[in-house]
Amino acid sequence: MIAYLELAKELLERFKEYRIVQVPGEENEQVDSLAKLASATINIWPRTISMIRLLQPSIVTLKEVGAVFGERDSWITPIKENLINDVLPSDLLEAKRLKYRSTRYSVLNGELYKRGYSRALQRCVGPEEAEGILRSIHSGNCGNHAGGVSLAHKTLRQGFYWPTLFADAKRVAARYEACQKIANNIRQPPELL
Q1: Which of 150, 177, 179 is nearest to 165 (CA)?
Q2: Among 15, 40, 97, 172, which one is least packed by beta carbons within 10 Å?
Q3: What is the mean pLDDT of residues 49-78?
Q4: Where is the Integrase zinc-binding domain positioned along the sequence (predicted)?
């Protein structure tokens, strides 16, 4: 998303003059209520969603360098130690579990990566870095103040992973009061009248 933001800024420089106005959700009640009303009605037409799978990014960017955080003993440490140095816990059951879990991970340039469902590598992060990533995706430059599950899926698409991702994303999204006020308020009864 940051690459698209940079491209948009670059394209805006070609205009002689322009004005960008952001209207907060609290001040945009009429449009918000129309959108909620439209999403609450039952559509009689079949809904089709076309999906295009990009094999490579549509914007070519330079490789970004992330900040390196000191790694305390987190969930990453035992897996990384097993993959690099073949170190296993003394407990046989725990060693078997770790050996099985480690098959889904790889170490590249000292960083731990997990193979996702599409076989794409997702960088594994610790709890300290995870909090910053969630806040950045939720309310950063390209943030859209998404709900918990949507925020978690967006984080996965950005190439990050940690075991408590979905719970952490719900907690971060619930922390913002403005997001709770703008959330969908469906007025349809749960069953037919």
Answers
A1: 150
A2: 15
A3: 65
A4: 127-182
115 vs 28, 62, 104, 119, 154, CA distance in Å? 42, 23, 6, 5, 16
Q: What is the pTM of this model?
A: 0.55
At 148, list the tokens. Answer: 């918990």
- Count of other CB atoms within 10 angstroms of residue 150: 14
Could you tell me whether strands 121-124 and 160-161 are parallel, antiparallel, or unpaired per DSSP bridges?
parallel
Sign of the four-CA dihedral 76, 79, 85, 90: positive
Helix (H) or strand (E) holding 113: strand 111-115
Supply the mean pLDDT for the chain: 80
Contact 102, 92 (CB under 8 A): no
